[in-house]
Amino acid sequence: MTDPIAPPPKKDPQAVTLRPELPPVQRSRAALKLTAAASRGGFALQVCDACGTVSYPARDACAKCLSTALTVKPVPPGGEVIAETTIRTSTDLYFRQRMPWRVGMVRLDAGPSLVVHLHGDVAVPGRVRMIHKLDKGGNAVLMALPEGRSAHMEDDPEYRELTASPKHRRILVTAGRGAVGQAVAQALLKAGAAHVFVGVAEPWKPFAGQEALANTPGIEVVPLDLTDTRSVAELAASIGGKTDILVNTAEHVRPGGAMDGGMIAAQDAFAVNVFGLQRLAQAFGPAMRGRGADGVNSAAAFVDVLPVSALAANPAFALHSATAAARLSLLQSLRAELRPGGVRVMSVFTGPVDDAWREHVPPPKVAPAQIARAVVTALAEGIEDSFVGDVAKDVAARFYDDPKVTEREMSQ
Amino acid sequence: MPPALMKRPRAPYRDIAVAVPVSLPYVRYSIDSAHWWIARALKALCDGAGIVPADVDGLSVSSFTLFPDSAVGLTQHLGLTPRWLDNIPMGGASAVVALRRAARAVEAGDATIVACIGADANQVDSFRKLLSSFSRFAQDASYPYGYGGPNGSFALLSDHYMRTTGTTREDFGKICVSQRDNALTYPQAIMKKPLTMEAYMNARPIADPIHLFDCVMPCAGAEAFLVTSLDVARDLGLPHAQLTGAIERHNAFPDDPIQMRGGWEMDIDELYGMAGTTPDGIDVLETYDDYPVIVMMQLEDLGFCPKGAAKDFVRAHDLTSAGDFPHNTSGGQLSAGQAGAAGGYLGLVEGLRQVTGQSLSRQVPGAKRALVSGFGMINYDRGLCTSAAILEGPGPQEGAGT
Amino acid sequence: MSTDLNGAGVLSALAGALAGGGVEIVDLSHVLSPEIPVMVLPPEFGQCQPVRIEEVSRYDARGPAWYWNTITLSEHAGTHFDAPAHWVTGRHLAQGTVDDLPLDHLVAPAVVLDFSAEAAADEDFILTRAHLEDWEAANGKIDPGCWVLFRTDWAQHVTTPKYLNLREDGPHSPGPDASAIEFLVHERGILGFGTETIGTDAGQGSHLSPPYPAHSILHGNGRYGLQCLAGLDRLPARGAILFAAPLKIRDGSGSPLRVLALVPGKGSAA
Questions:
Q1: How many domains does chain B have?
Q2: Any CB–CB contact under 8 A between A148 and chain C?
Q3: DSSP code of A256?
Q4: Which of A133, B158, B289, B307 is deepest in the core (most CB within 10 A)?
Q5: Which domain holds residue B68?
Q6: Which chains pack against A, by 3+ Cβ pairs within 8 A?
Q7: Which member of C40, C46, C47 has the closest CB to residue A205?
Q8: Given phi > 0 = left and psi -120 to 50 = alpha, else beta, which region is A218?
Q9: Can you tell me the ipTM of this complex?
């Protein structure tokens, strides 16, 4: 049974902070397709279109029939672990920092044999449930879990490496004036966060939910205006060294097409949605990247909650969609920049939020509590791209099928 | 199956001589390159045969550390103009495969004298760098899991083998302790201290169940031999052995969930048939021994005992070169050291010495027929290449020539 | 002091008084910073861009020997000037934008109406004609062509929630009604009206008649507004001279500015 992780002691100011190292990062293009699937959660492997054989490791041709039509799709995750080892020495710097490391060989019910990270609660030989997660280097890796749930199983050290669990971590939620930010902050606290900082811009303006934030133990309201570089820098100077997870919930949304509305609203939208994200990246990113291996409460994730119109524009919210696309692009670069620190960049794509600005948008809409649950799940399960609500899931499905068709569908 | 697709048996080897066993003393770390080691091995082959490099018209090279060169670059680097050239990247299976192919070239008249060389450099940190670019499947699907390298892969195989056969660490230990005993008689062995069963059992764990003395010591070095026809060997006055059988096989039994056997099992009957012998006719066995578990599998797959019964075989025999089942008589890689691809050559060169009475280690009395097997390339979860050869020589009494 | 009242003499005397402390300079401006609140309009309308300061370089790789910023802000952010063209009532007036103001309007005397006690007692205090008549009875008649500065001590609330005092029914802060502004514009001929609050109108000024009476009447009659003033507590009721020159923005509706007041000091007059 997994020992629950105890809250970490206060940092020893004389101890050298471990330099973040990454597990081996090189992958073939075929293997990166598994990474793409794992980034969205779920367990998927290559399946031969011609003969149905499940392949692993990732190949460019089926070893049974030589078809080159291999498609990554979900496969049953059950299997049998038939061998194990505990590796105690390695020449790899990442694993040296984390020895010993339990590894197993699993015969998947669907066919192939898998070298896997082996959860501490798995008995050998025995049945296992496979998961596909991203490791600290951002690549898909396999882990075998017990078939059922075991106590504190998420605290297994190898499993925790594959997630950005909020447990015992200190988290900044950037936009406390909004219902989404408030719901996210409360949900993270319930999920075991050690402390939640909630940024509030323009403190001279009252807002709904202000009292609840101020009166929740574990939540601390801090001044933060994403449109003001100095404000972001000053907060980072204050708490940047202990921000383990950052969740950006800021959103500026106004309806209107590309030909409507003038430049001020457009500038405001970019100021919050895009440049705000960039200010956070510049102010908090470097310290987070440096603390990716800083123990139980190492820096773990930079999460952005963004509209799914990042994938394909909603012409009724043209500027809003444009900022979302810019935001998505920025996140992709940021993901590459934070990867050397083992800090994940997670995108939580949402459908239309149920708020006053989108009152005229037909349902289904997304409640702040749904987004909060998705953020907690993304962190706890290490999901890089998650989609909240039916609209976001629908747009994503269409987009991954054909972006150009999706563009037309979004304008109908 | 239509007759055209029926597998036809391998033609036997005729009149192939193997001569001039060369083992350059290994060093743990060396600043010298693979090219340097190969050049010295080639020089030793020529000196040993009394020929000049221009007489070598075939070259077969195995080396992990030659990059960015291959055998091609070596011809210009070393001033050779061979009419037959081979580059064999099969790790522990390389020596037998090199021998097999060189033999076919000599039989066909494509070459007269082939120099077969396995050599590798070992600089500080070069093992780590070598691992990181070993294979695509390893890069994608085994190194990201604890990065145990071969230790991690063989730990899984060992764990499974022990679970399914009831083999114990002591059984593995007997192989390692016996080989150390042999190594103490081989002046060029890297390991020079006796190994007791107690020390074996108490060694520090590396990747359970593998402990320190289950692992080879990576080092730098070279091994080499010449392949030619019997008449040329006789004309040159070279002590030599005759190749009477050889097999190779790759990616055998791909549907086995985990490696329990190697490709030898597919070809062993043909091997003994070509050589006109049986396991009982083998005087010296040189197996590939990067870990004791693979020795166990070879004892089974090469027909010395039933599948899963190697532990009983090991318990019942004395595996030292003074014992009733002489095995890895120079100490094997476990005690002599593993000089990269030269590790695949160690057993062949040692077997050649034993059956030609040129042993540098304790000579096995009456050793006339050696079985040498190779195993190489953990591409992902298992070794893909297997090979084996039988060499027959005059034995220690007669000394030179047949 | 010289009794020669030609221009050179006046300036010479002023220079002497400034040097000797006989005339002092009072800064009536807040620091221009992102923290200073700006007016909040219903969200469907365009918004007042707040003050933003982006560093271009600060003796670093972006400029090794120099420091400078790029600032962005609304014409109506921080201590600022409202020109007649700011309001729809003044849109057709000549010289209604900041680049076209008569220069002699930029330096003018000021009177200060101290209603700080009333504002402290009532955040929605409304200044009426009656208040002005009472004030004149005590302090004398307001001169034509002068700035009338409405002191509420609201400047002390700047950067706090009390400054806008936003509630669900809108902001709450003191300001004038139509009777007061009609009186000042039509019966006294003032140059403009200045406040410490975020606008020349009361927080609840949209509910007066006409809505936003100060903006509507002042600008409809070519008069000016000054907002977000500070330091009014350091001015005498009469006798200060105000330097209030907005930036020369093409067709500008207003401008952030540095407002300075000359006041009699305790030092030497010459």
A1: 1
A2: no
A3: B
A4: B289
A5: 16-125+218-228
A6: B, C
A7: C40
A8: left
A9: 0.93
